[in-house]
Every structure is written in structure tokens, then in C-alpha cells.
Amino acid sequence: MSGRDDDVPHYCRDLARGQARSVPANALEISGLTVRHGDVLAVDGLDLRIGAGETVALLGPNGAGKSSTVSAVLGLLRPAAGTVRVLDRAPADAVRAGCVGAMLQHGGLPSEARVGEVVYLVRRSYPDPWPLEDLVATTGIGGLLGRPVEALSGGQRQRVMLALALAGQPPLLLLDEPTSAMDVEGRRAFWTTMRELAARGTTVVFATHHLEEADAVADRVVVLAGGRVVADGSTAGVRSAVSGRTVRLSVGDDADLTALPGVTTTARQGGTAVLTTSDAEATLRVLLDRGVPLTDLEVRGASLEDAVLTLTTGAAR
Amino acid sequence: MSPLFAFQLRRVGRNRQYLLFTVVLPAAFTVFFTQVFAGAPGGISQEAAAATMVAMMAYGAIGAALGATIRLSFDRASGWLRQLRVTPVPQTSVVAVDVAVGMLLALPPLVVVALVGRFVNGVRLDPGAWVGLVGVLWLGSAVFVALGLLLGWALEEKAAGGAIGLVATVLAALGGLWVPVEIFPSGLRAVAHALPSYWYAQTGRDVAAGGLPGMTAVAVLAAFGVVFAVLAVAVARRRPLAAVAG
Lengths: 317, 246
What we know:
Chain A: Its main location: membrane. Chain A: Residues 28-251 form the ABC transporter domain. Chain A: It is found in: Cell membrane. Chain A: It is a peripheral membrane protein. The complex is a heterodimer. Chain A is built from 10 helices and 15 strands. Chain A has helices spanning 66-73, 91-96, 115-125, 132-139, 154-166, 184-199, 211-217, 235-241, 280-289, 304-316; strands spanning 11-14, 19-22, 26-37, 40-51, 55-59, 81-86, 100-103, 172-176, 203-208, 220-225, 228-233, 245-250, 263-269, 272-277, 295-301. A 6-stranded mixed sheet of chain A has the order 7-8-9-5-10-11, sandwiched between helices. Chain A folds into 2 domains: 11-239, Rossmann fold (3-Layer(aba) Sandwich); 243-301, Alpha-Beta Plaits, CATH 3.30.70. Chain A starts with 10 loop residues before the first strand and ends with a helix. By secondary structure, chain A is an alpha/beta fold. The model of chain A is unreliable at 1-10 and 13-21 (pLDDT under 50). By secondary structure, chain B is mostly helical. Chain B has one domain (3-237). Chain B is 78% helix and 0% strand. Chain B is built from 12 helices and no strands. The N and C termini of chain B lie far apart (39 Å). The mean pLDDT of chain B is 91. Chains A and B meet through helix 1, strand 7 and helix 3 of A and helix 1, helix 4 and helix 5 of B.
């Protein structure tokens, strides 16, 4: 973002008055949000406040309500109940005012168009577009502008979608599974860009399955399950919310792993047993008593993945 | 010209098939039909030459209006409409641009076929009748813009791809644009009278004959237009733009 000539927080213009107004303390205020798709309750009375400048990961399994929440924030669906305020505006107004940029999971590019034309069109729609050269350099679409949309690879397509999301230098970015079609290198470059934007004061909210991404990029993790928030805090905080340990060891087929004290889940992956336990010491003592050899033993604290798994399965129960 | 309008126009203009089917083909048919009948014993009357020209003007304009609008289905399928919804481009101008592009693209076939009729086939009309003919058929093409938007919202991508060619062909064949309704058997004639394409061409024939478009034709066309537009809005409202999964 080298082309920006000041470090003043972003603002989006108030279309009604034609004036600039500064971003309120909360970029996003969701209260009691309920979304139904037919008979399915996708979001169930969700409350969430995200302050300006935060980088927040929305984590959760499929069907947790991540995409529905993002859609409601963007005004793409009408909630059954609850309110959503985006930078102190109704969602549709915030989008119209150019306050929001988004990468949608099921968004797309138009056929029979060139990349440069699409980027030009979207930039023109914002009151304060990002200078083209910077936008192109940051998103790495320099060689793609003259290309027909049909000729893009999956990763290139994602980069173009990112350029569209950033085209208006919006103060709030919403990214729904943004890196799903990217290779490892593309993913790394993507999150470097996100960290730079966050450092400039952009609020970044992203839904993801990739826990390592949440761990590496987000300063706050919101875990959703069954359409509700089941955990909310720093990545370290969410991890420590799960006090359990994971015990791994190589076992033979005849090893007796039933009825171990403290164990909440047991899984065998080939010759390896993976136990989650709230009391690693008691578990190991009983294993020793039963004469199970502790080959390749590994005991560690919960990863973010374990934490999310525990939290989301707990909520579903 | 709004950036979105220019953008949409460029996309359709890039499609060579579109140009072929909506402008070149009707113009070629106009020459072909007229010259074939002219070679028959007794030749071809001025009226018959004019009727062929009007029918092909209508055929071209219907194809152009439908072709420019049904493609809306592709933009729904690709997710582009959803992406556009999260930019500041207002939804109303997305719809307005689709209507405007459909209307604008109905004009070239009307003008080109009229020029072919005048200068290749020697159709003679008063200057006022020429302007009136193009003008009336242009206004009437709004009915097919509305139909195209309805189909674009209602049909899934594959069905829409087929419908672009098929609907115009059926409307033209059964509406008496290729073969005059006068030589239809009576059952088929009743079908023709139930189609907007027949009444659309009828307004053109009325003007080419030196009069005003008949009241019945105008009323039927207007009714079709209103029904298509209302249905298009109703179907569009029912289409969710949000992703349901996740």
C-alpha cells in the first residue's frame, strides 16, 4: 500500500451528505442475528462486536453459520431476526457507500470480459479507489489485466477476486474462505498482504477452515458452531480454554484402550492411537498398569485445531 | 455512458455469434426470400417484399433483445451478479443497464434489415413511414427485453443457453415471421394469434401499409410486456443471492 500518502484511518464517504466521516469504534455490530434457510436454522441469535482495526478469524465446521453470517453482514440475505450494523450503517447502505470489500465463497467473474475491464469497472464504482498501479502490484495481477476471464487458473482467479475486494480501499474487508483455491505460495503471499492491510488499520474478518491461517494472521478468533459463538478470544486464549492434552502412542491391535480415566475421545490412525484426555497422568498410569508399551509416546497441549474441535462438538451435543 | 453500460455492451459485442444471428442472418433472409419469390412466375409484389422485410426486422430484433438479456442467467451462475452486489454499484442500475443494453441492441437489426429492404429489394415507403416503422418496432422490442429478463432469471445456465436460440426461432416460426400467417392452417393460425411475435410484426405491417399500428396489436403487445415484466420481477425476488452452505 505504498501509494497511500497518509496514515489516517480509512473512511468511507457519507453519500447522503457528501462528507467524509470517521470510522466509528466498532466496525461490525451484530446482535441477536438469526438466519433461516427454509427449515434450517443457520444462525441462532448470534451476538458479535468487532472493533475497527481488528483482524478476526471466524472458525467452525461446515454448517456452523460462517457464510450465512458473512452474507447477512453484506446485506445479501434478510435475517429472520436481529440487527447488523456495519460501520454504523445498515449493511446495504455500507456496501453502497463503499465501506466494504468482500471475497465471497460463491462469488465469480463475468464471462466474455477481460480482467482489466472488470477491475476498472469495480474501481470506478468506489468513491475513493485504490490507485491502479498499487492495487495491481499488491495483488499480483500485473500480467493478467489483458487476459480473458475464462483463461485464468484457479489461483489467478482468486487474486483477481482479491483485487476486486480491495479496489475501493474499503475500511472493512470480509473474506469467506479466501484461500481455498490457492497453492501454498499464493496463500502465504495472500496473508502477507492481509497483515499489511491490517497494520494500516483495515478491519479484516475472514472465515476459514485453515486453523494455521487463523493462528498466524488473526489477533482474535471467533469459533462458531450451530449458528452460535462458542468461543471468542485471542488464539492463545481459545487454545487454553481447552485444558486437555493429546496423547499419541504406537499400539498393537490387541492393546486395550477402553475405559481409560480422563479420556474423552479415542481414535486409531493405523498403528497410532490418539487419545484426548483431561488427565494425562491418570491415563498414562492406567496404560502402564495394563502393560501397554508406551512406544513413540507424545503428550502435548491442545492445538487450536483440537480446541476448535472440542468446542464445536461440545456445542453440538 | 455509465461504466457498467459500456462494460455490458462490450461483452455482448465481443460475441460474434450474436452479431451473426441477430443482424447478418435476418438481412440475408430478407434478400433470399424476396429474390426467390421474385424469380417465381408473376414475380413479387411491393406489398409482399415489404411484408418480408418487416417480418425479418421483427425476427432480428426479437433475437437481439432475447440474446442480450437471457445471458443474465450466465452471470447468476458464475456468481458475478453476487459479486457485483457487494460493490457500490446499485442493484437498480444493474437492472436498468440490462434493459438499456437489450433495447439498444434491438436497433441494429431493425436498421440493417430496413436498409437491405430499401436498397437491395427496392421496397418503397414514405420517409415518415420508414422512421415510424423502425420506431414502432424498436419500442415494441421492449416486450422481448422483458421476456428475456424473465427467462434469464427463471432458467438455469444450460437451459438459458438453449433458450437464446430456441425461443426466438419458435416465436418467429409460429408467429408467422418466416412463413406468412395467411397460408397457415387454421389451428396454427390460432397459435400465431396467441404469440407476441405475431402482434409485434403486425404493428410493423400496419405502419408499412401507411397507417398507424392497430389498437388490438398495441394492446396485446402491451399486455404481454406487462405480464413478462411483472413475472421477471417476481422471479428475481425469489432468487437468493446469498450462499446457503457453510
